[in-house]
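Response to reviewer comment R2.3. The reviewers asked that we include at least one raw input/output pair. We reproduce the pair for Deoxyribose-phosphate aldolase here without editing.
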Amino acid sequence: MTEPTTTDVARLIDHTLLKPEATRADVEALVAEAAELGTFSVCVSPSMLPLQVPDGLAVAVVAGFPSGKHLSSTKAAEAAAAVADGADEVDMVIDVGAALEGRYDAVQADVAAVRAAVPAPHVLKVIIESAALTDEAIVGVCRAAVAAGADFVKTSTGFHPAGGASEHAVRLMASTVGPGVGVKASGGVRTLEQARAMIAAGATRLGVSGSRALLGGGPAEGSY
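Raw output as returned:
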């Protein structure tokens, strides 16, 4: 397999700003930087919508973020509002406690509720907080997400104290969901070397806040 170039890596990045203190000026700067760097999308909080973005730059928004401890109906309503405001993709957070309890049917129902509110061609990514889960739970929630119609499974919010993405988790997630569902590695992906390692492990999308630094253009920022 040929090592991905910086341009290849950039096209897999959701250029992300989810800090609570983010301002509209910060998000405008994020969009401009994403366009300059050639990332796939920007990923922002739903209150930042609607966004003016150049052609070719997708808009991703989070739902049930960052705890996942929202009612499924609340996550679905948040996702539906985001799509109505122009979001192309929604990154929802599961109830991690339900996963730890082995209640994968509840996780599936949660994802299905949001999927119903975000019909194709809109993309639904499911954040599982892999660092907080056992391997068994990672497999269980990935299967539940696929059964509910998710387009991607995603490692982390980047806000959980247990940590972010790992090559092991990405590899396990990719082998569980198979080639028809994407895997997004997010949380602590700060260098080009780390990004390439995640891609080699099976990641098909990357969540990055310090994209300029990762791609070789400036100092690192953030932890997402």
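Residues 220-224 have pLDDT under 50 and may be disordered. The domain at 6-214 is CATH 3.20.20.70 (TIM Barrel). Further pairs are available on request from the corresponding author.
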